[in-house]
Specification:
This protein folds into two domains: 1-28 and 203-267; 31-185. The chain is built from 13 helices and two strands; from the N terminus they run H-H-H-H-H-E-E-H-H-H-H-H-H-H-H. By secondary structure, the chain is mostly helical. 51% of the residues lie in helices and 1% in strands. Helix 1 crosses helix 12 (248-256), helix 2 (43-55) runs antiparallel to helix 9 (173-183) and helix 6 crosses helix 7 (125-132). It has helices at 13-23, 43-55, 61-75, 79-84, 88-94, 105-122, 125-132, 141-151, 173-183, 207-215, 226-239, 248-256, 263-266, and strands spanning 99-100, 103-104.
């Protein structure tokens, strides 16, 4: 049985559209790991870059950008070709000194090995995702569970800081951020995954987004888990049924950039 609807939303679509028109542009992206995707025109490269950039998108933004840049520099002009031609031993040698907060070199290596296995088996990360995605699914949840499971097959340990598991109830903010980048296509999100509808996306829920959506009456839940992310997504669907994640970028600008005014939303 689906959970009950959230309380009445205290922001109008008109206000969100005003924010969207102000901040939905590439000039507002920096500092955001999304900017790395703009450097690659091939969808095969872009999805690998997106997976890495979103997986490392936690902690201070300056460190995120530094860590993502360090990984991509070692992968050369085509991260997809680099990965497909790599060996386990080669990856261990190249990334042995990597560290990002509590993410270890082995976490990164396991994720890359998983992505390589997925690409060889399904042709691409996109191919793996759509292998489990069905038109009758209300959201991307089922397909994301499948993708996370396939990516995790190479894990040398029971857990990986870069790969949360949706089936365990996590909001999986970074995985849903990755999906937003790859599925939506506009001035900010580059897209490329044409076989997945934006209407199925789930809001990438972090502490900032949870706080704003609580203030807007989109959830009364205190825990930032999958149930909360789904409740907030349903609230956004009332405003934008075909694209419930449409306002994610502009709302997160209010917490990331010093030149964006949160008062524009609540005034």
């Amino acid at each position: 049985m689906p959970p009950p609807d959230c309380q009445p939303i205290s922001v109008s679509k008109e206000k969100l559209e005003q924010l969207f028109s102000l901040y939905q542009g590439r000039q507002w992206v920096h500092p955001d790991p999304l900017e790395f995707l703009y450097l690659y025109s091939d969808d095969r490269d872009r999805e690998i870059v997106g997976l890495i950039a979103s997986a490392l998108a936690y902690g201070r933004v300056a460190q995120i950008l530094k860590s993502v840049s360090a990984v991509l520099e070692k992968m050369g002009p085509s991260p997809a070709n680099f990965l497909l031609s790599s060996t386990d031993a080669g990856l261990e040698k190249i990334f042995s000194g990597f560290k990002h907060r509590f993410t270890t070199a082995q976490d990164l290596i396991d994720l890359l090995c998983g992505a390589r296995t997925v690409c060889k088996r399904f042709g691409s990360i996109h191919g793996c995702f759509v292998a489990a995605h069905r038109d009758q699914h209300d959201t991307v949840y089922e397909a994301l569970c499948f993708l996370a499971g396939e990516l995790g097959r190479a894990n040398s340990r029971t857990s990986n800081s870069l790969l949360p598991l949706p089936a365990r109830g996590s909001a999986c903010k970074r995985l849903h951020l990755f999906l937003r980048w790859m599925v939506r296509q506009d001035d900010v999100d580059p897209g490329g995954w044409d076989h997945v509808s934006p209407s199925k996306l789930i809001v990438p829920l972090d502490t900032h987004m949870h706080r704003i959506c609580s203030q807007l009456g989109m959830t009364g839940r205190k825990q930032g888990d999958l149930k909360t992310a789904m409740e907030i997504t349903r609230a956004f669907r009332k405003l934008a049924p075909e694209d419930p994640v449409k306002y994610d970028f502009v709302l997160t600008r209010l917490g990331i950039r010093n030149d964006c005014d949160p008062g524009e939303l609540f005034e």
